[in-house]
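Notebook entry, cofactor series.
This is the third protein in the set we're modelling with a bound small molecule. For this one the ligand is flavin-adenine dinucleotide. I'm keeping the input format identical across the series so the outputs can be compared line by line later. Sequence and SMILES below, as received.
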Amino acid sequence: MIETPENAIYCLNDEIGFVSLIQHIGDDCTIVNSARVSFGKQIKSIEDKDKKLIKYLLANKHETPLEHNSLTFLVKCPLFVARQWLRHRIASINEISFRYVEAAEEFYIPQSFRKQSENNRQASIQGDFGEQEEHNKEIFDLAVKESYLAYKKLLAAGVAREQARAVLPLATYTQYYWTVNLRAFLHFIKLRAHKDAQFEIQQYANAMLLQVESIFPETISIWKELNKT
Ligand SMILES: Cc1cc2nc3c(=O)[nH]c(=O)nc-3n(C[C@H](O)[C@H](O)[C@H](O)COP(=O)(O)OP(=O)(O)OC[C@H]3O[C@@H](n4cnc5c(N)ncnc54)[C@H](O)[C@@H]3O)c2cc1C
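Returned structure with ligand:
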């Protein structure tokens, strides 16, 4: 696994899963300038009329001027989070390969367990498990340990990494570079920072929005205002 960058934000309270903004292109002016190219005009700093333009673009879904801005993140998350994340097709991805390298013994172990929602078949609700909470942790912990032991035994027996990895649990950490333009990024945040998204991916979405806010302060502030729920 690649080392954790200094600006990483740990997302799952385990000092393993993180997101880190590696590089970016563009700023608030890039959005205004690409929108105003139609009139042959360019700006170097944002004024009130430019904020109005950004608001107009976002409110009316004229979002192509956002596409000239690019964000690259290094992400380390459990496989089940990656499975949801990588459904977002408007992005470029390169992921660590457990065909090339051995999976590390790093798993996401929930700090507390939620109950199944009764009125939303996808969702969970906070639950008080009482004494069962400790048992839940033990069951979870044992399952990932045993899976990893089976993985190591298969490798030791000479089984190829690409086959042995199939016994690893969804809690296994993976790592990838994820590059998106600002339009696709805000679409991701709208869906994945939303309360209906799974808690774990919400933590990543919120951390990324925090990292991007300082790069596009006006745009993100207007976007937040328009997307208030
Ligand atoms: C709360 C929640 C629950 C979900 N539950 C499920 C589930 O139960 N099962 C399931 O399978 N998925 C589920 N999903 C995933 C969901 O269906 C989408 O695959 C995922 O959110 C990516 O959204 P997207 O396609 O808009 O984004 P992207 O793939 O990033 O695409 C961005 C936008 O580009 C355009 N676009 C991209 N590709 C095409 C295309 N081929 N044709 C036309 N326009 C395109 C669309 O406008 C799209 O909104 C869930 C997502 C959320 C947030």
